[in-house]
Design brief:
By secondary structure, the chain is α/β, with parallel strands linked by helices. It contains 17 helices and 11 strands.
């Protein structure tokens, strides 16, 4: 008799101590759970062995990437329902389902073992980053992390990001604006906050596929140096720049920001790059950018932030993100970022939250991926495409629910006299 779904529902509710808000459909065709709710599809019992070996988020993620777990129904609704049980609880989720905590859980875990199939668990999907050794955020380790995330293939990013090739939060003047218009408006907002004028030198740290550099050179006449650790990004950006006829205004380097020594620059943009820096290197990052700016120069730091922890020592990198998306990436609270920039000598003049804008951006990217799904699978892998769909959808919800945010911080290297070289009303952005 097909009853795997009912057994899974019963065991999951026993382990979690709460009713499951989603239906379960098991590999034997059975279903259990609230009628009409999004359905968690367990296609193979291998997924259960993954969960027993790695309880919580990482075990679920491995099952998802391997295609052993799926969602039938609205992905956002399903993730919202599951979030309260697992996705928001981090380390607590592992504590909640650990089979050795008490007799009740041991009994439930034993039942799960009975239906999980032969031991041991399958190996992690090939898309998972293998265990890395050595100190965090060395040049070598950072290059490897950046390559894992960005060297997926430019064709893949074209599908997801659209023609703008901007991989950061867009700026929606109206909720119904197109993604292309919103990304153009974001780049223009950055240029205006930096006060760029003809001939000024701009350093674009983490320049991606060259979109910021092109906009600043074409629309504002800036002389731009862009640096990235991704060779694929650099090659793509250089071709775009040549096609635009801007090779006399833009130089793209495959270079670590720590190795840039040709300052001073009039302005620096760092858009969606600082999340890779890490807490152990953030003061160094701030010091380096401060040294590269001329007195009176401006920095625009566009960065994702997390909510502060009551005990900051308890913060740890999200298992799924670290293993499949941004290896070694770290998020810091906004206050810590502002404080570090100030410690380095910057005067912070403006902070603007774009949290809701990033949620809209991510939903656009998910739609783009889903629209091109067969092609995305073909040019990467089924697992890689599934990583990106889950990562972007879950991130959209995190921004919507205020679990994370994104901020543009405008800071200046004031002159020795104290003059900031900014207008009295900075929000005019000129």
């Amino acid at each position: 008799m097909a009853d795997a779904a009912l057994r899974l529902t019963t065991l999951a509710e026993e382990l979690l101590g709460a009713p499951l808000p989603v239906r379960i459909r098991a590999w034997d065709g059975s279903e259990s759970g609230p009628p009409g709710a999004p359905t968690l599809v367990v296609r193979h019992r291998r997924a259960l062995r993954r969960l027993l070996w790695k309880p919580g988020e990482l075990g679920l993620a491995r099952g998802w990437v391997a295609g052993e777990i799926d969602i039938d129904g609205d992905l956002y609704a399903a993730l919202s329902l599951i979030a309260g049980l697992l996705w928001e609880r981090g380390a607590d989720a592992e504590d909640a389902v650990h089979p050795l905590r008490d007799p009740r859980m041991r009994a439930a875990a034993k039942g799960l073992v009975e239906i999980a199939g032969p031991w041991p668990p399958p190996p992690p999907p090939p898309e998972e980053v293998r265990r890395r050794s050595g100190a965090l955020h060395t040049r070598h380790r950072d290059r490897a992390a950046i390559s894992h995330h960005y060297d997926v293939g430019n064709d893949f990013y074209e599908m997801v990001l659209g023609p703008s090739m901007v991989y950061s939060c867009a700026y929606f003047e109206e909720p119904g604006a197109t993604l292309e218009d919103a990304q153009r408006d974001k780049l223009d907002l950055v240029c205006r906050k930096l006060g760029l004028t003809e001939g000024e030198r701009l350093l674009d740290v983490g320049c991606g596929w060259g979109s910021m550099a092109i906009h600043a050179a074409r629309e504002y006449g800036a002389q731009v140096t862009g640096v990235t650790l991704s060779r694929e990004q650099a090659a793509y950006a250089r071709k775009r720049i040549a096609d635009e006829g801007l090779t006399d205004r833009i130089e793209i380097r495959v270079q670590d920001y720590r190795d840039v020594r040709d300052g001073p620059y009039d302005a620096i943009s760092s858009i969606g790059m600082a999340e890779h820096v890490g807490s152990v290197r953030y003061r160094e990052y701030a010091d380096d950018l401060f040294a590269l700016l001329k007195p009176g120069g401006r920095l625009l730091n566009h960065q994702i932030a997390r909510r502060p922890e009551r005990d900051e020592s308890a913060y740890r990198i999200d298992d799924f993100i670290d293993a499949y998306v941004f290896p070694d990436g770290e998020l810091a609270p906004l206050g810590r970022t502002v404080g570090t920039l100030e410690e380095a000598g910057f005067e912070v003049r403006d902070v603007e939250s774009l949290r809701e804008h990033y949620a809209l951006t991510l939903r656009h990217w998910v739609r783009n991926l889903e629209r091109h799904w067969p092609e995305a699978v073909r040019i990467t892998s089924p697992g890689r495409a599934r990583v990106w769909r889950l990562y972007m959808a879950a991130s959209a919800l995190s921004f919507e629910h205020n679990r994370i945010g994104v901020n543009q911080i405008l800071a200046v290297r004031s002159r020795q006299s104290g003059d900031s070289a900014l207008p009295l009303r900075t929000r005019t952005w000129n």
